[in-house]
Amino acid sequence: MKAMKSLRKAIERYYLSIFILSMCAMAVTFLITVERLTMKQIDQELLAFANDLKHFLENPTGELVAVFGKKDYSFEVIENGKTYASFNISEQIPSDHQGFGTINYKRVYSTRAGTYKLIVLKDIRDHFVIMTILAVVLAGAIVILTFLLHRFGLRLTSKMIQPIEQIGKQMDDISKGIIRQIQIEPTSQEAYNLQNQINDALKRLHDTMEELREFASSLSHQLRNPLASAKAQIEVMLKETDSEEIKTELTSIKKNIDTMVQITSGLLLIARAQHQREDSFQQEDVSVIVLESVEQVMQRFPQTDFILDVPAQIKARCVSGLLSHAFINLIENACKYSQIDKPVKVSLSEKNGFVIFSVSNHGEPIAKEEISKIFERFYRAKNAKPDGLGLGLAVVKAIADLHHAKIEYSYNGTNCFSLYLPA
Amino acid sequence: MRLLVVEDNQDLLKSILRFLQKEGYNADGAIDGDEGLDMAFEKRYDCIILDVMLPGVDGFEFVESLRENQIDTPVLMLTALDAVDDKIKGLASGADDYLTKPFDFRELLARIKSLIRRSNLTKGEEVVFKDLKLNGRSKQVKIKDELVKLSKREFDLLELFLRNPEITFSRDEIVEKVWENEKEIRSNVVDVYVLYLRNKLKPYGYDRYIETVPGLGYRFHRG
To answer: DSSP class of residue B221?
Structure first.
């Protein structure tokens, strides 16, 4: 599948960019306002200084201009292109300069007073430094705030996304196991609605499956009595007839009936395993169950040799009537797919809180892509025997699930199926 | 040999009766539990083949009622396959063996024969060896009045040893005697069961009486 964008990342990127943009806009507006206000202040000071000078020039007898303590200030008085008086001037001011302006970190104001041209300046280097510091501080604040928002927002988004993730996780479990209702902590009305909608759909699915299962189960059940009668009648006829031709026909009919019996058995066992209640579990001697299962298979495979490694009195809580069917099916499969003249090994052991039943044979390994499928109902592997029905391992799976047991397949020179049963 | 078959499916009942008659048995049939009980009280049968699901008195009640009236005719129960608990319930209510439907007549016949043989062999007899008591009828083993839980095979094996002390059995002979009609049992199963049996007797110190005779088999040595 193509990698999809993460919803969480998309939301995060979205609000972070909006946040940074608005913060920057605010900071710039703030800086411009501060700049304007201080400039206005400086300009008024310059104007006042210029007016003092003008007043002195027009009334030379008046008070002296107090330039002391105003080391930032400088001035120049020009008469007919020549400097009449000056203080602290280092810059070359263009002669046509009029009104306010900024030259080399200095605020300049030029005006006329009678025949004189009057130029006053103020050093505003400090002002620039302060503005730069202010800009840096603001930028730093934005970075820190963005970082904090990112951290805080992460929690917020993950909280918002959480219901979706919870639903995903629970649906994952459901698709692996049994259908049940989902339960999330809704953080919004939408999440709550989504939960209800999914639960409605799940309930319908569950009901449909249940109906189907019950149908299969009751159908199988209903079929068994007529099958039992038909089988019995054929067996009696087989005994009574002398015609070889009729015998052959009857034997073939009997074989077909046996197949039907096997199908109904498989379906009934699966239904049974899926509906078994936990309270029917009992502490059982698994060693005995295994051995009895082996005995049953021995009857059907007179040619096969068995190696048994089944220590006494290994116990576990189980439904013995069902567990034995799982063992029988696994051992039978091992016999069916074993090389002729090679033994089938059945072993039972106890390890780390598990009772481990293993059966191995010398046979063709199962292809990797088939391993997950062979436990499906009616699935027939490529090298399956023609007489199989594809139900045996599905029965094993259903019974294993009932017991919360894990089935493992491995190939290590021999094919090995293991059932891990919680003790 | 007189057999009683209680089965509510008429076709199946007819076929079973015909088959058993062909095999030389004297078989009666009953279509429900009440009729079957009346017949079982009236005549003495060697074995009763009983369906669990019966109208009226069901299979379990049938067996209980038999046993309450001191009729210890062996009962072979026919159960539905998916009713796993039925088997346990059937055996607990006093039935001797069970067979799931549909079954092979060969199998049915083998089970009937084995039940009859065993009931003739062990008619309530008790074998006592020191503090060990084995009851063939109730299938119980007690050591110093303490019940030793044995599986069916373990019990049969112990019974064989106790009834034939000092006789060395080969593994094949044990298979023949204990597994009777299951001819295909390999002899290594015998070894496993002997091991199981010894294991269960060990706490009482009785495991040492079952001896391995190298190259031959096993024997019960009273020494």
So the answer is: -
